[in-house]
Amino acid sequence: MYDFAYQKPASLADAVKALGAEDAKALAGGQTLIPVLKQRLNKPSVVVDLSRLGLSGISLTGETVTIGAMTTHATVANSADVKRAIPALAHLASLIGDEQVRHRGTIGGSLANNDPSADYPAAVLALGATIKTDRRTIAADDYFQGMFATALEPNEVITSVTFPIPAKAAYMKFNNPASRYAMVGVFVAKGPQGVRVAITGAGQGGVFRHAAYEAALAANWSADALNGITTPTDGLNSDIHASAEYRAHLIGVMAKRATAAAG
Amino acid sequence: MTAAFEGIGASVRRKEDLRFISGRGHYTDDINRPGQLHAYIRRSDRPHAKIVSIDTTAAAAAPGVAAVFTGADLAGIGGLPCGWQIHNKDGSPMAEPKHPVLAEGKVRHVGDPIAVVIAETKQQAKDAAELLDIVLEDLPSIASVTAAAAPGAPRVHDDVAGNVCYDWHIGDKAAVDAAFARAAKVVSLDLTNNRLIPNAMEPRAAVGDFDPTTDDYTLYTTSQNPHVIRLLMGAFVLGLPEHKLRVVAPDVGGGFGSKIYHYAEEAIVTWAAGRLKRPVKWTAERTESFMSDAHGRDHVSTAEMALDAEGHFLALRVKTLCNMGGYLSTFAPAVPTYLYATLLAGVYKTPAIYAEVKAMFTNTVPVDAYRGAGRPEAAFLIERLVDTICHDTGHDRVDIRRKNFIPVDAFPYQTPVALQYDSGDYFTTLDAALKAADWAGFPARRAAAKANGKLRGIGISTYLEACGIAPSKVVGSLGARAGLYEVANVRVHPTGSVSVFTGTHSHGQGHETTFAQLVSDQLGVPLSQVDVVHGDTAKIPFGMGTYGSRSLAVGGSAMVKAMDKIIAKGKKIAAHLMEASADDIEFKDGKFSVAGTDKVKTLGEIALTAYVPHNYPIETLEPGLDETAFYDPMNFTFPGGCHVCEVEIDQDTGVTSVVNFVAVDDVGRVINPMIVEGQVQGGVAQGIGQALLESAVYDEAGQLLSGSFMDYTMPRADDLPNITVGTESTLCTHNPLGAKGCGEVGAIGSPPAVMNAVVDALKDLGVRHVDMPASPQKIWAIIHSNRPRMAAE
């Protein structure tokens, strides 16, 4: 770890200001940033800790679930409100990392980092969630811009994420055997924004929507509707754990299982 | 009320666990000496390169830096020695290129240490290490044994032609060729044994200390054998005599073989402490562990069995290429020869065996012994070959094993590959395992799984291993440059409590409990009154350490010999006190009594007399009650047994789940059944890890692709089933305890059981063999490539 300054502002405005410094880094749960710092892969001038901004918490309306950016995965996984309104989202949160990670990692941190193998991007994209920041709201379709790339400006801070409550939804994850990140994660949803299928872990550019599956499921919401629809291997990741062909196959398996699980 | 039984055979809770599980263990990294400096090692990120230049100026001038050393600074000291010499088929010695402490002229694997920066803090050392200006010029490189053996392959060492460390053989080639010529059937199998990275929970660490007032050096290190390190580093690397060098291995958090060897970092911190007159500490980061701890396995083999028409094994022929890595680690040459090829008889009476082993240098981390060491490779080869014979010929997997087992009345049994087994009963362990695994009920479970769309398979492994690694005379004749006895010092204190000093080392095995039980049982002293001391060359007379499941069989036997001396001396003291002949004194349950009388003296009374010898046979007997024994056994020990594994494969994803695992092992005398069960469970976990999950993956050039836990699949609790462990023991016939050893049986017996189950699950697809690990991707590819065929049927 290189030396860096550390700030823990008490207001969102102060945090945004502090993040305006060159090479400033925001610290949410630290489940990616801290290991990266320890490996000297990043050399921030200042680390701005967001934990005093009051950004955690879950609120419910008849149509939406809103989750504060600093809400931990464990809180989401165990929330009675989330379990009732969008059980697939609570289930997804329960699959992230391990117990320790889930008690530190946050939804805002995960989305700001946009790891191509992270779980939350699949839910955000498939449910058509809205990301609220210190200065604006961003639709999920506009937010994810490739591997580790998002629509966020350098000093922009996510404050909350609002999910429309779907009629049906489920998430199926195939773990990377070593890291247990998603090697393929498929989130299917039928909600106010129609039928949406988002794939994480598999694409070189991070999370993406699967148009062919969406069309098939919109016509016939059943696992069988996906039979015979193959996923092109172009743009899929290939590594020692899974070739692009295997990932393409797993997308089909996980999508069918997710559709079946969503009922 | 009688106290709870805590002697031999009792599942006493481990004495050491309270400090381990409450975070109060005392490990090498917990040691901090006054004035200590910190070392950081800059390692090669290239598999093979010429070192064009190293400019240390900026690093040496960085804040807090005490010194920067490169290979040129250490050129005057010896290279890291190899403790085992193999001879080629033609009688010439193996190639043994220098293994410099810091790279000299070239780097030969990713992780090869190039320079060390020593500073006031570790951060300063790391900061300065980034300022080292190292110019490397890439050279062609190779990672696999097949690439190393290919014509025209780049040379890892300029003076080692063809990258061959040795080309060795064992057995009777003519007899094997003759048997193949008349065989009714020959079955051949190509197989690899996947390379593994040990990943002990505690990374390696070393602290060097030097006392300028006495010229005494101390090395604190994460070692399984501190005396061996003292010998190797003192005599061969640094030129320090034993009386000026103390090596301490405190609590050690797992070794699995990887902490046997003498590593560069130990020599660096000790040497630098002397140069700088200040203590120097180094602790590996996990990334360094992946690229600097010795790896395990990495064989490519062809095995052929000649059979008669009834399925009797006539002869076995094996050709193996094994990977030594970029340099020879301490015991590397022994692993694929005397710990592998000598085991190729397994539990079978195959009359003729011939094996050729070619050891190759590659641009990878050195490979050495890892839990089981050679024996898992042998068991995997034999047991996969036996199942392949059944696949090709239609023989039943259980029947063919029974047909070829060494009979119970054939012991001692001389194999065609040097070893003589002293005892065993492979039929009993087989029967017990089949029963516990409900082998007979499997077809119904398979059918039920099939109805659920799952492929279910069952596999068996009837394995054998040689452990209690010892007889000095035998290992010496096989190329060892050291003796392999063990040492115990039993000290009965004046008030009757006992300290036992052992040359073995516990790094998770529970020695503080098992050995205390042994002493408690033999001397009749409560367990709480016995302490086991290990891991310090200043406290223990000598010792060869812990590996090869040798601690109880060899180290425990040394304790028995020392206790025999204690009892013999105690009898003389008791005879004097009770005015009887020593021949008439009996010792039982901690009491010396005169036969046929009610005269009794306790061990405590005898001890007090020995240390306060007012009324004592001083003319004929020295005071004190403190005895040492060196024990060098007559033979290896030969644990064995039967493992049965049942798996279920998800056809859609290729995921293999172990749904049941039974291990029935013959480990000889059991001191603490709970600890034995734990050892077997841990070994099986590692074996399932090798079979389904773990693999050290290099690209063709020698970049380590599985260099962290993000890509190296360590087994986790939810990867493992409940493991049923049983023992069906025959006793070792040549050590006083009858103990055989249990540390490695799990890792040796389990991989072939798992893989035989995987192949069985896939048998309807015509699958004959699957190499480890049976990863989801690999199994899916097999199923996928056979799908059209399944559909057609």
Automatic annotation (TrEMBL), chain A:
<dbReference type="GO" id="GO:0016491">
    <property type="term" value="F:oxidoreductase activity"/>
</dbReference>
<dbReference type="InterPro" id="IPR036318">
    <property type="entry name" value="FAD-bd_PCMH-like_sf"/>
</dbReference>
<dbReference type="InterPro" id="IPR051312">
    <property type="entry name" value="Diverse_Substr_Oxidored"/>
</dbReference>
<dbReference type="GO" id="GO:0071949">
    <property type="term" value="F:FAD binding"/>
</dbReference>
<protein>
    <submittedName>
        <fullName>Xanthine dehydrogenase family protein subunit M</fullName>
    </submittedName>
</protein>
<dbReference type="InterPro" id="IPR016169">
    <property type="entry name" value="FAD-bd_PCMH_sub2"/>
</dbReference>
<dbReference type="InterPro" id="IPR036683">
    <property type="entry name" value="CO_DH_flav_C_dom_sf"/>
</dbReference>
<keyword id="KW-0285">Flavoprotein</keyword>
<keyword id="KW-0274">FAD</keyword>
<dbReference type="InterPro" id="IPR005107">
    <property type="entry name" value="CO_DH_flav_C"/>
</dbReference>
<dbReference type="Pfam" id="PF00941">
    <property type="entry name" value="FAD_binding_5"/>
</dbReference>
<feature type="domain" description="FAD-binding PCMH-type">
    <location>
        <begin position="1"/>
        <end position="168"/>
    </location>
</feature>
<dbReference type="InterPro" id="IPR016166">
    <property type="entry name" value="FAD-bd_PCMH"/>
</dbReference>
<dbReference type="InterPro" id="IPR016167">
    <property type="entry name" value="FAD-bd_PCMH_sub1"/>
</dbReference>
<keyword id="KW-0560">Oxidoreductase</keyword>
<dbReference type="InterPro" id="IPR002346">
    <property type="entry name" value="Mopterin_DH_FAD-bd"/>
</dbReference>
UniProtKB/TrEMBL annotation, chain B:
<keyword id="KW-0560">Oxidoreductase</keyword>
<feature type="domain" description="Aldehyde oxidase/xanthine dehydrogenase a/b hammerhead">
    <location>
        <begin position="22"/>
        <end position="140"/>
    </location>
</feature>
<dbReference type="Pfam" id="PF20256">
    <property type="entry name" value="MoCoBD_2"/>
</dbReference>
<dbReference type="Pfam" id="PF02738">
    <property type="entry name" value="MoCoBD_1"/>
</dbReference>
<keyword id="KW-0500">Molybdenum</keyword>
<dbReference type="InterPro" id="IPR008274">
    <property type="entry name" value="AldOxase/xan_DH_MoCoBD1"/>
</dbReference>
<dbReference type="InterPro" id="IPR046867">
    <property type="entry name" value="AldOxase/xan_DH_MoCoBD2"/>
</dbReference>
<protein>
    <submittedName>
        <fullName>Xanthine dehydrogenase family protein molybdopterin-binding subunit</fullName>
    </submittedName>
</protein>
<dbReference type="InterPro" id="IPR037165">
    <property type="entry name" value="AldOxase/xan_DH_Mopterin-bd_sf"/>
</dbReference>
<dbReference type="InterPro" id="IPR000674">
    <property type="entry name" value="Ald_Oxase/Xan_DH_a/b"/>
</dbReference>
<dbReference type="Pfam" id="PF01315">
    <property type="entry name" value="Ald_Xan_dh_C"/>
</dbReference>
<dbReference type="InterPro" id="IPR036856">
    <property type="entry name" value="Ald_Oxase/Xan_DH_a/b_sf"/>
</dbReference>
<dbReference type="GO" id="GO:0005506">
    <property type="term" value="F:iron ion binding"/>
</dbReference>
<dbReference type="InterPro" id="IPR016208">
    <property type="entry name" value="Ald_Oxase/xanthine_DH-like"/>
</dbReference>
<dbReference type="GO" id="GO:0016491">
    <property type="term" value="F:oxidoreductase activity"/>
</dbReference>
